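INFO  loader      accepted 1 record
INFO  loader      residues=219
INFO  predictor   begin
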Amino acid sequence: MNPNQYQLNEYDQTRIRPLKDQIQDKHLEFRYLMTIAYWYTNKDYAKCITDAQKTRRLLRDFFKSDIRCWFFVEKHTDPSQKNYGGFHLHALLEDPSDRWQNLTERQKKWMGTLSAPAPAVGTGALAEGAPGTEQKMLLIQKVVQRLQKQTVAQGSRGIDVRKIYDLDPCLSYCSKQFEHFLPSYEVIAAPSDIDFQFFLRNKQDGLQYRPRKSQNFLA
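INFO  predictor   done
INFO  writer      dumping tokens
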């Protein structure tokens, strides 16, 4: 399924409204949707959080940029699949830094191994010598797959990075399990650059959000 082509219904639109509000308030500009699949069946939610934290740190370290990310935990629900009951991760990512004039040695080395065509006019190049959109996606994939190799499945099954053409369907796709297996504030993984307070206090009820019945954990 291509998340960019997901057709939203009115319940989807209600669900993503507070996410869109935060994107606007925080001036977030998500450019890429990344899916991280494990090479084994991971049923440990806490490990998803740890891996999201590590992924965020690795991306920021490699690109030398405070890339803001939102991570979402999704449960595998198809009993016919070997990974049934396990989890995988989705992430919405801002664009890596556009400061490509002073590349680190690691950046130069990894960019030199990419198989994507050299950037050209119209393909997303930022400046002469800067990576284009396709190269940035390959770099993101390479960073996470190479440095998370003990966790992430290798090859195309492990990391899928796509350019976001329409943010609303991607938000809906990432948040589709809100309140199904986990509350929304746990579907959104803890290292996300997001204010959790709204989701801690409220849950979707049909075409609106209502206060959660129990708020003892907020004391």
